[in-house]
C-alpha cells in the first residue's frame, strides 16, 4: 500500500468515527507521524486529566493504543507496568492510578501494515517511554514498543521529541482557544450567554430551521414592574430584581435554550426546535414561576410580573435571524403598550406581610 493511500484511509477512519473526540484525533496524528518515521509495532498514549486539566478535549482519562499488526494480548502487561511506574515516579499514588486505569476509556487505532513487515515472533518488547508535560504539569505518558530487540537510535529519539513537541503545542493552542471561546461566550457581569454568542447561535439555528424545516422561536421579555420598583425604591433595587428574574429563568429553561440580556431589564431566549405553541406554554410557566417566588425589598414582599413577546419561524414572514428577533421585540413592545393602556395604574407590587 502506498503511503498516500494509507494516510487517506486513516483520515477517513478518523473523520467517520464518532467515538473519537478531538484529543483522540490529535493523538492519532502523533501516532501517524511516529509510525511513518520509526520502525515500531505499538504506540500507547495515556493522558491523565483528573487534577491537571479541566476541558472538553481531555474530559476523561484515555488510553489510546495504536498498532500496525494484530494486537498481541501479551503486550498489555508491559504497557500497564510502564504506565503505572511512570505515573508513580511523578509522585502520584499508584493505587489511584490503577483505579483511574480501570475507569478510563480505551481508544484503539489500527494502522495498516508497513511496507516492510516486521518480525512478529519475538517475546521481548523493548519499550521507549517519554513523559508528556504541558505548562510544567505532568499530563501523560508515551510508550513506543517494537517486536525486535533493537532500541531506538539517537536519530529516532530526536524524531520522537519533535513529534511530542508538535503534539503538545497543538494541544496547548486548542486549550487556549477554548478559554478564549469561553470568555467570549459568557457575559462576565451577568453570567449569562453574551449577546455576540446569542446572535451567532440564533443565526446558526435560523439557517438550520430553514434547511431542515424545523420550528424555531425567540422569546423576548422583561420585568413589567421594573420602572415602578425603580421609582419607589431606587434603580439599584430594580436592577437586582431584574437580575433575580433572569437568574431564575436561566435555571428553569432547557440546556439547549440560550438566554442573554439585551438590556438591563430585557432578555431574549432562543428556543430551538420549538413552535409558537411551545414557546407560549413556556412563557406562561415562566410568569407563574416568577409570581410564585418570594422576593423581598426592604423586608417587604414584592410581586414580580413578566411581560413578553414571541416570534416563531416559519409562522412569521421573516427571511433572517435578525428579523425574527426584531419581530419578537416589536410584539413585546406592543404587549407592554397594551398592558399599560388597559390595566390599572400599577405600583411596585409590594405587599407588607404584617398587613395581610
Automatic annotation (TrEMBL):
<protein>
    <recommendedName>
        <fullName>diguanylate cyclase</fullName>
        <ecNumber>2.7.7.65</ecNumber>
    </recommendedName>
</protein>
<dbReference type="InterPro" id="IPR050469">
    <property type="entry name" value="Diguanylate_Cyclase"/>
</dbReference>
<dbReference type="InterPro" id="IPR000160">
    <property type="entry name" value="GGDEF_dom"/>
</dbReference>
<dbReference type="GO" id="GO:1902201">
    <property type="term" value="P:negative regulation of bacterial-type flagellum-dependent cell motility"/>
</dbReference>
<dbReference type="GO" id="GO:0052621">
    <property type="term" value="F:diguanylate cyclase activity"/>
</dbReference>
<dbReference type="InterPro" id="IPR029787">
    <property type="entry name" value="Nucleotide_cyclase"/>
</dbReference>
<dbReference type="Pfam" id="PF00990">
    <property type="entry name" value="GGDEF"/>
</dbReference>
<dbReference type="GO" id="GO:0005886">
    <property type="term" value="C:plasma membrane"/>
</dbReference>
<dbReference type="GO" id="GO:0043709">
    <property type="term" value="P:cell adhesion involved in single-species biofilm formation"/>
</dbReference>
<feature type="domain" description="GGDEF">
    <location>
        <begin position="214"/>
        <end position="349"/>
    </location>
</feature>
<dbReference type="InterPro" id="IPR043128">
    <property type="entry name" value="Rev_trsase/Diguanyl_cyclase"/>
</dbReference>
Amino acid at each position: 500500500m502506498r503511503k498516500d493511500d494509507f494516510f487517506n484511509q486513516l483520515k477517513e477512519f478518523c473523520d467517520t468515527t464518532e467515538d473519537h473526540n478531538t484529543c483522540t484525533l490529535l493523538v492519532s496524528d502523533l501516532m501517524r507521524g511516529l509510525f511513518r518515521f520509526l520502525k515500531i509495532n505499538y504506540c500507547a498514549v495515556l493522558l491523565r486529566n483528573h487534577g491537571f486539566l479541566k476541558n472538553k478535549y481531555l474530559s476523561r482519562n484515555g488510553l489510546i493504543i495504536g498498532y500496525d499488526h494484530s494486537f498481541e494480548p501479551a503486550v498489555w502487561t508491559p504497557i500497564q507496568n510502564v504506565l503505572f511506574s511512570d505515573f508513580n515516579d511523578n509522585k502520584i499514588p499508584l493505587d489511584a492510578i490503577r483505579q483511574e486505569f480501570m475507569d478510563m476509556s480505551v481508544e484503539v487505532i489500527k494502522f495498516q501494515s508497513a511496507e516492510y513487515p516486521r518480525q512478529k515472533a519475538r517475546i521481548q518488547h523493548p519499550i521507549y517511554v517519554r513523559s508528556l508535560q504541558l505548562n510544567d504539569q505532568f499530563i501523560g505518558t508515551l510508550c513506543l514498543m517494537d517486536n525486535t530487540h533493537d532500541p531506538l537510535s539517537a536519530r529516532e529519539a530526536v524524531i520522537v521529541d519533535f513529534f511530542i513537541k508538535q503534539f503538545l503545542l497543538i494541544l496547548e493552542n486548542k486549550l487556549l482557544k477554548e478559554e478564549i471561546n469561553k470568555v467570549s461566550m459568557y457575559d462576565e457581569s451577568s453570567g449569562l450567554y453574551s449577546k455576540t454568542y446569542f446572535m451567532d447561535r440564533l443565526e446558526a439555528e435560523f439557517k438550520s430551521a430553514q434547511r431542515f424545516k424545523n420550528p424555531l422561536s425567540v422569546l423576548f421579555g422583561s420585568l413589567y414592574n421594573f420602572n415602578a420598583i425603580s421609582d419607589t425604591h431606587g434603580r439599584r433595587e430594580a436592577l437586582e430584581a431584574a437580575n433575580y428574574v433572569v437568574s431564575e429563568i436561566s435555571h428553569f429553561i432547557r440546556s439547549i435554550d440560550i438566554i442573554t440580556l439585551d438590556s438591563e431589564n430585557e432578555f431574549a431566549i432562543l428556543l430551538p426546535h420549538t413552535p409558537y405553541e411551545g414557546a407560549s406554554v413556556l412563557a406562561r410557566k415562566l410568569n407563574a414561576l416568577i409570581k410564585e417566588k418570594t422576593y423581598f425589598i426592604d423586608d417587604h414582599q414584592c410581586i414580580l410580573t413578566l411581560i413578553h413577546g414571541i416570534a416563531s419561524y416559519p409562522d412569521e414572514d421573516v427571511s433572517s435571524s435578525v428579523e425574527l428577533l426584531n419581530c419578537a421585540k416589536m410584539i413585546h413592545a406592543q404587549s407592554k403598550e397594551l398592558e399599560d393602556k388597559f390595566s390599572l395604574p400599577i405600583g411596585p407590587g409590594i405587599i407588607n406581610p404584617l398587613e395581610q
